[in-house]
Task: inverse folding
């Protein structure tokens, strides 16, 4: 049987906030944060690839219905629930998502258990920038940002916003200076990402590893999967998380 049936499930609680967490694999830790509408079969399939490459992967279930299909109906339903949730921000500028504290605690716990240089953190679409928020914590050694779409780029300012508070942006920039690069993936014509890749290049300089694919598309690792993107992510994890 495929899908989450092969994954163990537990509940992780931090500061009164609880979410299901699915786990599978052995090796260095990686937190894969799903996109809207949720933990779709495509997200789980990508996570299985990371497991097969030799990692302990945890999948937090933050919103939506686990293993529900990636459909317009499910996406609209999930967006509606996310918009009214106190854990997330879809439109605010210069603000870190409140769920970042929970995600950082999850990364710390995983790193404490497994040891090594740190853990990986990968966000997708609405959660793309969450990996940046997580790298404020030193437990995150391999942050990956894929098609970051929050805040929704309905204005030029929101399209360039990195969904970080000023203090968190300063912490991210210092971590990059200290030797923790950020990998980013997107389709060059994906309007949902706004001008965030330009902003990341401006703020992080050579510390931002920018990978862009030609043509239209959005979900670089799932619905519009690019093998080069998967390979770059796995190579980044190997370089950052495996002890020489």
Result:
């Amino acid at each position: 049987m495929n899908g989450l049936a092969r994954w163990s499930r537990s509940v992780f609680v931090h500061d009164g906030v609880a979410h299901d967490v699915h786990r599978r694999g052995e090796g260095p830790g990686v937190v894969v944060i799903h996109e809207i509408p949720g933990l779709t079969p495509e997200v789980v399939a990508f996570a299985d690839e990371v497991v097969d490459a030799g990692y302990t992967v945890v999948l937090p279930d933050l919103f939506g219905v686990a293993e529900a299909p990636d459909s317009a109906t499910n996406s609209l339903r999930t967006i509606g629930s996310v918009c009214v949730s106190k854990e997330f921000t879809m439109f605010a500028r210069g603000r870190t998502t409140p769920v970042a504290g929970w995600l950082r605690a999850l990364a710390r716990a995983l790193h404490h258990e497994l040891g090594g240089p740190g853990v990986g953190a990968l966000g997708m679409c609405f959660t793309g920038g969450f990996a940046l928020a997580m790298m404020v914590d030193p437990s995150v050694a391999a942050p990956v940002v894929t098609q970051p779409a929050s805040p929704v780029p309905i204005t030029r300012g929101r399209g360039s916003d990195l969904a970080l508070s000023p203090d968190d942006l300063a912490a991210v920039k210092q971590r990059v200076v200290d030797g923790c690069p950020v990998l980013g993936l997107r389709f060059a014509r994906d309007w949902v990402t706004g001008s965030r890749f330009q902003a990341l290049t401006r703020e992080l300089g050579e510390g931002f590893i920018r990978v862009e694919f030609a043509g239209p598309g959005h979900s670089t690792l799932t619905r519009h999967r690019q093998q080069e993107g998967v390979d770059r992510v796995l190579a980044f994890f190997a370089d950052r998380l495996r002890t020489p």
